[in-house]
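debug: dumping io for the single-chain case to check the tokenizer round-trip. Nothing else runs in this session.
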Amino acid sequence: MPVDVLIVGTGEYTTGYVTSASGAAADKKAGIAGLVCFDLRRRGKVDKISFAGVCGKKFPAIRQHLKEQIQDVYKGMDVTFSSFPADDVDADPEAYRTAIKSMKKGDVVIVFTPDDTHFDISKAALEHGLHVLCTKPVVQTLEKHLELVKVATANNALLAVEVHKRFDPIYADAVERIQGLGDLNYFVSYMSQPKQQLSTFVKWAGKSSDISYYLNSHHIDFLCHAMQGRAKPTKVVGMASTGVATGAPYNIEGAEDTITLTVQWESLQNPNNKGTSVHTASWAASAKAEVHSQQRFFFLGSKGEVNVDQAHRGYEFRSDEAGYKSMNPLFMKYSKSPDGYFDGQNGYGYISFDKFVDACLAIGAGNTKPTDYNNMLATVDAASTITSTAILEAGWRSTRNQSLPVEICYSEGGHIPTSLK
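debug: decoded output
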């Protein structure tokens, strides 16, 4: 029996709709989450779809946008949805609560909202017996992460983090190969977005969240996933670069341009063996780059190394209008099949949602339980996601406290973080 889906958040990643007044031109004009859910409905996995936002008066324009970008493009794609708040409401930050109450136990909530709202929305949905897929970071503190683990368990609900790079075939292959490369010695990652994105994130950049939570979360999750059961982080130092975001034309007070987290790791099998990881995220990158986001990492183990450049995969595109671009259709393929249907089901941006919905359907049918997915999805009770949150929070604390080191604490003999100091 198909599930109903509520998508909380109406921005670029969910709908592709971005007003010129609120930020940069959309990189994903058809969106991701909404498009996937409409296609899952076409495939019989999803029934009713709802969106919850803050401003109801945006919904008529969003409906028109989705019609033009999805329904008029792909055969058999129905983009009708219920919306919260009503179309005549200027602003209702609590509209998601009304939307949640309209759902039945076992339905699905997808959360793509500013980082500091994830906890309240996810908790409300879990307490209503709904399964939740929340964009990274699921929360900003270890304390709230551990609380959500308890709430999800108490309500027999599945809560996972939408970290789609786990389904990137190259990243997934790298995780497996790293298992045979011995202890972590050194890891370095870099991820960026063009500086015009600052116009889109002006309301929260440097205030309720930062570029490290937004982008470092990807590669920190990757490394925590690869190191699960093999190593644990013990100390984090954060440092920031400034000047672009705080200057014209953005003038965002207190916002960092680039944040680097340096993490000390300890081998679980050989505690005397230490490793270091360095994670850098920036939204001060060139507005004219060949990719929207630079994404790469290097792993050095005691028995070998892995080097991945996700932004450059040997697929180049040039046109008089767009110039030179390095393409990545492995993430999301928007082209149509020969018979006119949406044909992007194999993209890892699609698979991330598809696998979560499949899990919820199996749980609803009584074939599985939420804990069965700890090694298949980025569930909040998995050691890897708890560790990722601990590193990100420690980095946030250090960056805002003169780059002093923050220790990650464990129970005696344990490998899942319990607190920071």
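debug: round-trip ok. Residues 211-227 form the longest helix (17 residues).
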